Records
---
Amino acid sequence: MTLARVAAGMAALLTSLAVQAGVVSVVTLPVPVSLPAVLVAAVALSDGAGTGMAYGFAAGLITDLGSTHPAGVLALCWMAVGLICGLAADRHSVRRDALLAAVICALGAAAATVVLAVLGRSGASFGDAVRYLVPTLIGDAVLALVLVPVVRVFLRSDALAAPRPPAVLLGVDS
Amino acid sequence: MRRLTRRQRVSAIALTVLALCFITLDLGGGSLAGAHDGVRGSLGSLYRGTDTLLGPMRRFVQGVPHAATNESKIRALQQRNAALQATIAQEQADRSTSKELAALKLGSGALGKKVLPARVIAFGPGQGFDWTVTLDVGTASGVKLGMTVTDGHGVVGRVVHADRGTSLVLLAVDPGSGVGARNSRTAALGVATGAGTDGFTFVPLDPHTTIHVGDTINTGPSDGSSYVAGLAVGTVRSVRTSADGTIKATLRPAVAPDTLDLVGVILSGGEAVGTRAPVGTDNSLAAGGSR
């Protein structure tokens, strides 16, 4: 992990939160389409399950603490989004990866709604989780089609590429 | 499908346990209240800082559903020269703001309370199930927790967090919140529960009272209620009586939650101290127009 990657990750998260609160939420209200969740998925698709899991947890916790619902709900769900996307990434087809990100993010949003309904907070209900699943999938797919290739290009650039072990650099492990 | 390494498995379990600890702590009491306040304040500052860029985009998006009605006006404007267009656009924006301020002034006059104008700079972050908006006014302008927010006619919500420059408002249509309300025709009391974009569900306390489609439901009484009394909650859209005689009415909200822009915080109790003067019964409109 390099300082540049941490700074870029934080900047991307804050930007996505600002755009989510300023524009995306207005367009998609009351469907839980989430730009930060798609960002987590896009990072996981490029960098793997470990990075996705950690980034999802951090992004979810910050969003949780800025919201009115109990902290930890989105941290848990977005961590799972990062984990699953990292494990299931295709890494060859951008469109397939974007669709995967949309499906996992929509399921993550439904899972968060169910957890909140179980906790009896924020007025979420099991009906909402089912009712908004398809609209969330469509909204997330639109965001993912834009975000996944952009994040991939950034994370493959020399400045932000993940540091690799010397054995990999020397081709010993292949 | 790849497999997790042993280290990643341990990390996943540790983070899951940590998330469950956070949920338990937050549900258990105010252990994380300080963390919530800090992050909400920081995000509020972020939204305030980026509103210059995102605000016009948001207002454009909010205006898209009405675009067809403005088409002829837009065509007419396009025929004029650029300078005139700019002038007209500016005048329209001023008129719109003036109209909204006038509505706030009217509301403050009717309620006999001072109203602090504020602009919505962000909608609930992260996920759509947060029925909150962030305003560009905070404690520096006199905003306190629990204050009622209005659009000048109807109830918008109440302040659940405030820092120096921004405040977080839980919308009245939040499905988890209830408003003490009164039918303006019969004066019957009841509870209006938020139902998101569907508006409200109103259940009268007296099951023998009558409710008609078109009845107006207002907030009140003020004692024991989180909201200032006398603000419009909504209009009765349909009435249903269940087998046990319980009456349930659905309300069309007086304030559409997805078109919020300029609102007012009702400064109930205490004088506002800050840079933005409140619009009150004894203040002129110009005093509130410092934005």
---
Amino acid sequence: MNRKKIYPTWFAAGALLLYSVLFVLPGVIGIGYSFTDWSSYSDRLKFVGLENFRTVFSADGNYLKIMKNTLVFTLGTTVIKNILGLALAVLLTKSIRLLNFHRGVMFMPSVLSTLILGMIFTSILNPSTGLLNTFFRGIGLGGLAKPWLTSPVYAFKSVMAVDIWRGTGYIMTILIAGILSISSDYYEACSIDGASGWQKFRFITLPLLLPTLATTTVLNVIYGLKVFDMIYALTNGGPGKATTEVLYTAVFKKFGTGQYAIGTALSSVMFLFMVFIGFFMIRLMTKDEVQE
Amino acid sequence: MKLKKLAALSLAMAAALAFSGCTKQENAPQKSTAEGESTSADAKTTAAQEKGGVTLSFMASQDWIQDAEIELSKKFTQETGIKVDYQIIPSDQYVNLLMTKLNTGECTDIFGAQSGKFDIKAQINVEKNAVDLTKTSWGSQVEPLVADELSVDGKLYGQPIQDVSSVWAIGYNKQIFKKLNLEIPKDYASFQKVCDTIKAAGITPVYECVSDGWHHTLWLPEAGVEAETAEPGIVDKWNNNQVPFKGNATLMTILDQINDMVAKGYWGEDYMSNTYADSAKNIASGKYAMTVANQGFGVEVNKVNPDIAADDIGYFVIPLADNQTLNVNPAGPARFIFSGSKHAAEAQQYLEFLAKEENLKYLTENVGKFNKLPFLNAPSMYTETIQDFYNRYDKKGTVIQTAVKYVNPQWSEMGANLSAMIVGEMTPDEVLASIDEVRAQQAKAAGDPAWK
């Protein structure tokens, strides 16, 4: 190999410098602040060690519930979005009438602004005047009309449902691209061997789609952990203390009340979550990748 | 090697270019601060010409700047040549943004903030961030109770923006009360009777909106004035951290009675999803009879339904825990001049202009919800109903969020706790304990000696 043809490492210096100054440094400083008593009440900054993290992980506060909510939200929406997205992608790669129209309809919710969607759904899910409950009452199923966003029993599931509705089309689009890139030769060979539709899906589509599924899962998980606008617009963490509170809405509220140090401690925890989950997930999911 | 040198050189140049934008223009000419006190017409014109370029920036929360004030500012520009640029921020983001701006030392020339002698000291830190306005021509005209909430160590730092005479009380539809032959309740038992009668007539007694997160919170600290009436000196004890909120009999009664109202259906079915923006509409529709409102509410209801006159909405104090003390709140939004402003003199001119008698009159006449601005020389426009309401109660008490430290800053947290209590996730005891806990956190962060 001609070593002279490879660019020397110091060519990356400029990019590295910019990246460090603009991304790494603020991140590290942020983590640094989580070990202080930074707040809007005082100019002085005192090192308090792990106190903020002790607060965050103590059983008294709601923080553990908030972390649990975030993880449940992430897991739930990721699994369901992937399953529904995959089903829709398989359906919408068959030759059916108005194919692009169907794809467009499914993709539409992802294009709309989350905040606007949140407001629309706050109105649709309003217990007395909302479209959904009015519909149920109209067809004589008044018993199904529930306080979707205002009862601790249903609020979290409702928020997840709206998010799944919004995100499935996006996942579907990525998976459609993945399915279309699979060579038709495999399916042809399969047909000649007499494979059924399920077998084609199980032994060709799914294995060859794994890299794409890995991508959609990573995207979903990162989105789920970082979710803010959907929850903010639908319930703002309520009803009650922390029924639908997730990490980002909690961080937002802590900054709003001037408790910056707790806010940064929470975001540091979230950062660790993301690095940990992201790293292991990518390793796990790319382990058995099928190479074409 | 040549390549290495070239790369190093270009990197250095790029860095120099990138950082050159960060230099402060410390040598920039600073004129236009000396001409603040010119009074004669000639001097004004000269000043107007010289200050032609000055634009004051004024940051405030949504609803704090009235159209009438913007109209007045045009007159101010005509007189002095100084323009005012209003930066209106959504209310839920305002405090956060203001604190960030103050902490980074880059605030607007004038900023709005809630008054309250404890909060302006601990949170806004006016001694450092705002200009002392004690010696201004209008300073002595501010009503004493209101001025007290704008002062630290006897120095006045702010100018009130709004009418603060209005109190959060129960606004009721007089027509419904008359039809059902009801009288103004004087304690919780009579309030219950009123609610039962209204409910029996097929009308929801109280319109409450929990989803906004702040309105349902009012019941506790507003009716909480009763705590001081029941146990004189309790407010001082709370401020000196001698007793906690938890275990206070009055506050516990209020919380229990909130639960009781919900359980008995006085708030109807949709209290969790109702919104404050719809309150006038719902009272105007006649589906609801009462709501916690301030004294501009009658005008709002009248706007929606002309059949209900503004005076058809009457008021009585929240009778939880048998409260009969008028819950006044001398705190409200105020204008402060940022101490780091280059145009502090012009900003003072603007405040002086607004406090002129004719301009106070203009504001009172042109803003529906203003009945009496808190200046001694401001005109009063109370209607008979409102005057009656204020005269009905002998005793006045300052609401808890203003009288007691570290309560107002946790308003939204209190709101979340109360809604958790309403849906059965927390007990009244836990709600009070949580308020104590957040108070302690804030006091500690502020270095309050009473919490050490």
